[in-house]
Amino acid sequence: MEKDKNSAGIVETKFFQINEKIELESGIKFGPIQVAYETYGKLNTAKDNAILLLHALTGDAHAAGYHSTDDKKPGWWDDMVGPGKAFDTNKYFVISSNMLGGCSGTTGPCSINPDTGKPYGLSFPVITIGDTVKVQRKLVEHLGVKKLIVAGGSMGGMQALEWAIEQSDMVSACIVIASTGRLTAQGIAFNAVGRNAILSDPYFNNGNYYTEEKQPEQGLAIARMVGHITYLCEDAMHKKFGRRFQDKDKPNFDFNIDFEVESYLEHQGRTFVGRFDANSYLYITKAVDYFDAAGKYGSLENAFKQTNAKFLIMSFTSDWLFPTSQSKELVKALTKAGKDVSFCEIESPCGHDAFLLEFDTQTKIIKSFLAKERGLHEQPL
Amino acid sequence: MNNHYNESKGLHLNYSIITDIIEQNSKVLDLGCGEGTLLKMLYEQKSCTGVGIEIDQRNAIKSIEKGLSIIQGDLLEWLKNFSDNEYDYVILNQTLQSTEKPDKVIEEMIRVGKKAVVSFPNFGYWRVRFYLFFKGKMPKSNILPFEWFDTPNIHLLTVRDFFEFCQKRNIKILDSVYMKRAKAFKNFFTNTMTNLFTEEAIFVISK
Question: Fewer CB within 10 Å: C terminus or N terminus of chain B?
Answer without folding.
Answer: C
